[in-house]
C-alpha cells in the first residue's frame, strides 16, 4: 500500500470524542442475571420463589418474604473460577479465580395476629445479580483470503448519505467511528483521490492470522427493599423497590499478522515480524431503579402446595462510559520536520458518554410444595420481553416517544427487535432432610440464548451511538445450563449453607464483521470462533434467625 507521509507526532492524543457506543450487546449484558444469592438459593437452582422464606428469593418474587414468621439475617461469599487456556488473565493483568461478596440481607417479621392479616415483614437484601468476570482468548486464528479488520474500517469510511468520507476533514471524521479515524491516522487505510482531490475509495491492509484477548470484571449490584404481607396464612403479597449499581471494566487486545499487498509479512530492520496492534480499555458505571410486585397463594387449605406470580418492571438506568483506544500499525513513518524515522506508526484516542437504558419487562411463575418436614420442591419459569428494552440519548436526532429522560434511539430499537430474543428461564430444585438438622439440595437452572445466531454488531446503521464505537468485536452467547448442589445445617437460630454451581455456556466470538457484499448486507462472512465459557462457583452462607 503506497503511503503518503506527513508531519505528525508518533503518539497523538486525538482529543476526547463526545460519546462512546452503547449497543445491543450492552443492553443484553446489563439486563441479564446470574444464578447468585445465598447458598441455599443457589443449591436449589434459584427455585425458591413459591417456597419462600428466603432472602434472595425476594429478588424474583417479593411475596416470598411473606412466608417468614421470624426475623432473618445472612451474608454470603463465593469463589468463582473459569478456564484460561491461552493465559489471557496473566497477559491482561487479570485473574481466572476470584472471591466475591454475593449476598447480605436481613428481615424483620412483625406478628400482628389480626383476624386476616397475620404478619407484616420488612426486608432488605443485597446480591450481585450479575458478575462480569470473564476471559475470552483466541490465538493464531487464520484469516483466509487476507481478510483484515482494516476491510471493515474501509467500509466504515463510506456512508450511504455522503459516500466516501475524507478523513482528513473534521466534519467527515464525525460521520464514522473513532476506530476508523484512528486506522486512518496510522495508515491502515489509505485514501485514493481523483484529479480534483476527492476521495473515491480507500486501500486497506491484509493479514494472515489474528490474536484476540478480552478480560472483563465488575458486575451489577442489586439492592432490594421489601415489604410483604401474610393474609390468613393462605395468601402472601409483596412489593420491592430495587436499586442497581453497574461497575464494569474491560480490556481488549487485538493483533493481526499483517501482510503487504504482495502477501509478504512486514519486518523491522532486525528481521522481526511487524504486526497491527489495537488495545482498548473501557469503563462503565451506572445506576438504576425498578419495582417488583408479587403474590403467592395456597389454593387448598389443607395442602402446603402454593403458586406464585410476580412481575419485574423495567429497570431505568443512567449510564456513563469512557474508553481509551490505542493503535500501532506496521507502516513506517518519517517526521518531515525532524527527519526522524519510526518503524511503527502509533496513535491513541479517548471517548466518553452519558446515556440511558431500559431493561426488559419480566414475568415469573412459580410452584412450590413440601412433603412433611423432610422434602421441599420448587419449580419456576420466567420470561423477559426483549422488545421492552430501550436505549435513549440526550442528543439523538431520531425522536420516537418514551420516558422524559433523553430521546429514544429508534435505530438501536430496530437492532434490539431484530437480534435480541425473549429470554426464557427455568429453575428447578429439591431439598431433602437427611438428619434432624442437616439438608442436601440439588438444582438445575436453564436460560435460553439471548441473541439470535445471526446477530452482529452492526456499525453501519444510522444510530448516533455507533459514531463513537471504539471496538468491532462481539460475542453471541448460547443457552446457559447450570447444575447445582448443596448442604445445609439448621440450628435453633444459627444456620450455614454451602453450594456448588457448574455453569456451561457456548459462545460464538467475532473480532470484527465483514461481508463481501458490502455494508448494506447485514451479515458477517467472518467465521465464528466457538468457545466454551464454563465456570465453577462455591458459595458459603452464614445466617441467624431470631
Name a few traits of the molecule.
single chain; mainly beta; two-stranded antiparallel sheet; 14-stranded antiparallel barrel; 27 strands; 7 helices; 51% strand; 546 residues
Instruction: Summarize the biggest pleated sheet.
Output: 14 strands, antiparallel, barrel
Low-confidence stretches: 1-20
Q: Could you tell me the number of beta strands? A: 27
Query: How many helix segments?
Result: 7
What does the model show?
- With 546 residues, the chain is mainly beta.
- The chain has seven helices and 27 strands.
- The protein has a 14-stranded antiparallel β-barrel. The chain has a two-stranded antiparallel ribbon with strand order 6-7. The protein has a two-stranded antiparallel ribbon with strand order 8-9.
- A hairpin with an 8-residue loop joins strand 12 and strand 13.
- The radius of gyration is 27 Å and the shape is elongated.
Give a brief rundown of this model:
The protein has 546 residues and is mostly beta strands. The protein is built from 7 helices and 27 strands.
What secondary-structure arrangement, pairings included, does this model have?
Blueprint: E1 13-18, H1 24-31, H2 39-43, E2 72-82, H3 88-91, E3 97-111, E4 117-131, E5 134-142, H4 149-156, E6 158-159, E7 163-164, H5 170-173, H6 178-185, E8 190-193, E9 199-203, E10 206-231, E11 235-259, E12 276-297, E13 306-312, E14 316-329, E15 333-334, E16 341-342, E17 345-358, E18 361-371, E19 375-385, E20 390-393, E21 407-408, H7 410-419, E22 423-435, E23 438-447, E24 474-490, E25 494-510, E26 529-532, E27 535-545
Parallel strand pairs: 1-17
Antiparallel strand pairs: 2-3, 2-27, 3-4, 4-10, 5-10, 6-7, 8-9, 10-11, 11-12, 12-13, 12-14, 13-18, 14-17, 15-16, 17-20, 18-19, 19-22, 20-21, 22-23, 23-24, 24-25, 25-26, 25-27
Helix pairs in contact: 4-6
Amino acid at each position: 500500500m503506497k503511503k503518503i507521509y506527513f508531519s505528525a507526532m508518533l503518539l497523538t492524543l486525538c482529543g476526547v470524542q463526545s460519546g462512546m457506543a452503547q449497543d445491543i450487546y450492552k443492553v443484553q449484558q446489563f439486563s441479564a442475571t446470574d444464578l447468585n444469592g445465598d447458598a441455599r438459593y443457589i443449591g436449589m437452582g434459584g427455585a425458591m420463589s413459591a417456597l419462600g422464606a428466603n432472602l434472595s428469593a425476594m429478588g424474583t418474587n417479593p411475596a416470598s418474604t411473606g412466608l417468614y414468621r421470624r426475623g432473618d439475617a445472612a451474608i454470603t461469599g463465593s469463589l468463582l473460577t473459569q478456564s484460561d487456556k491461552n493465559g489471557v488473565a496473566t497477559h491482561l493483568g487479570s485473574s481466572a479465580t476470584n472471591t466475591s461478596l454475593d449476598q447480605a440481607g436481613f428481615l424483620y417479621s412483625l406478628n400482628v395476629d389480626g383476624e386476616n392479616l397475620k404478619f407484616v415483614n420488612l426486608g432488605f437484601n443485597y446480591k450481585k445479580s450479575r458478575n462480569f468476570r470473564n476471559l475470552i482468548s483466541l490465538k493464531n486464528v487464520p484469516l483466509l483470503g487476507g481478510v483484515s479488520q482494516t476491510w471493515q474500517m474501509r467500509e466504515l469510511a463510506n456512508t450511504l448519505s455522503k459516500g466516501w468520507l475524507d478523513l482528513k476533514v473534521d466534519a467527515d471524521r464525525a460521520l464514522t467511528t473513532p476506530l476508523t479515524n484512528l486506522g486512518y491516522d496510522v495508515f491502515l487505510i489509505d485514501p485514493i483521490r481523483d484529479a480534483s482531490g476527492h476521495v473515491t475509495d480507500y486501500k486497506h491492509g491484509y493479514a494472515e492470522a489474528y490474536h484476540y484477548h478480552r478480560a472483563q470484571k465488575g458486575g451489577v449490584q442489586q439492592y432490594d427493599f421489601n415489604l410483604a404481607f401474610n393474609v390468613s396464612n393462605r395468601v402472601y403479597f409483596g412489593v420491592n423497590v430495587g436499586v442497581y449499581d453497574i461497575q464494569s471494566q474491560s480490556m481488549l487486545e487485538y493483533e493481526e499478522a499483517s501482510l503487504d499487498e504482495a502477501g509478504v509479512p512486514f519486518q523491522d530492520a532486525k528481521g522481526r515480524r511487524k504486526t497491527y496492534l489495537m488495545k482498548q480499555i473501557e469503563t462503565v458505571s451506572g445506576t438504576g431503579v425498578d419495582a417488583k410486585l408479587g403474590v403467592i397463594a395456597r389454593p387448598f387449605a389443607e395442602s402446603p402446595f402454593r403458586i406464585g406470580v410476580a412481575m419485574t418492571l423495567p429497570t431505568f438506568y443512567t449510564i456513563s462510559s469512557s474508553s481509551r483506544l490505542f493503535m500501532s500499525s506496521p507502516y513506517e513513518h518519517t517526521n518531515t520536520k525532524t527527519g526522524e524515522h519510526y518503524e511503527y506508526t502509533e496513535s491513541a484516542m479517548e471517548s466518553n458518554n452519558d446515556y440511558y437504558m431500559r431493561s426488559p419487562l419480566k414475568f415469573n411463575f412459580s410452584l412450590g410444595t413440601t412433603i412433611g418436614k423432610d422434602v421441599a420442591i420448587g419449580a419456576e419459569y420466567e420470561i423477559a420481553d426483549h422488545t421492552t428494552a430501550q436505549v435513549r440519548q440526550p442528543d439523538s436526532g431520531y425522536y420516537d416517544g418514551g420516558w422524559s429522560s433523553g430521546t429514544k434511539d429508534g435505530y438501536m430499537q430496530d437492532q434490539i427487535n431484530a437480534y435480541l430474543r425473549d429470554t426464557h428461564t427455568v429453575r428447578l430444585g429439591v431439598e431433602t432432610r437427611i438428619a434432624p438438622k442437616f439438608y442436601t439440595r440439588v438444582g438445575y437452572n436453564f436460560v435460553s440464548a439471548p441473541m439470535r445466531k445471526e446477530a452482529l454488531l452492526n456499525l453501519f446503521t444510522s444510530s448516533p451511538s455507533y459514531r463513537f464505537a471504539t471496538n468491532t468485536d462481539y460475542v453471541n452467547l448460547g443457552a446457559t445450563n447450570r447444575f447445582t448442589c448443596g448442604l445445609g445445617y439448621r440450628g435453633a437460630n444459627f444456620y450455614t449453607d454451602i453450594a456448588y454451581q457448574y455453569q456451561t455456556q457456548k459462545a460464538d466470538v467475532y473480532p470484527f464483521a465483514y461481508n463481501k457484499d458490502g455494508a448494506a448486507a447485514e451479515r458477517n462472512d467472518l467465521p465464528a470462533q466457538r468457545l466454551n465459557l464454563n465456570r465453577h462457583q462455591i458459595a458459603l452462607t452464614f445466617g441467624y434467625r431470631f
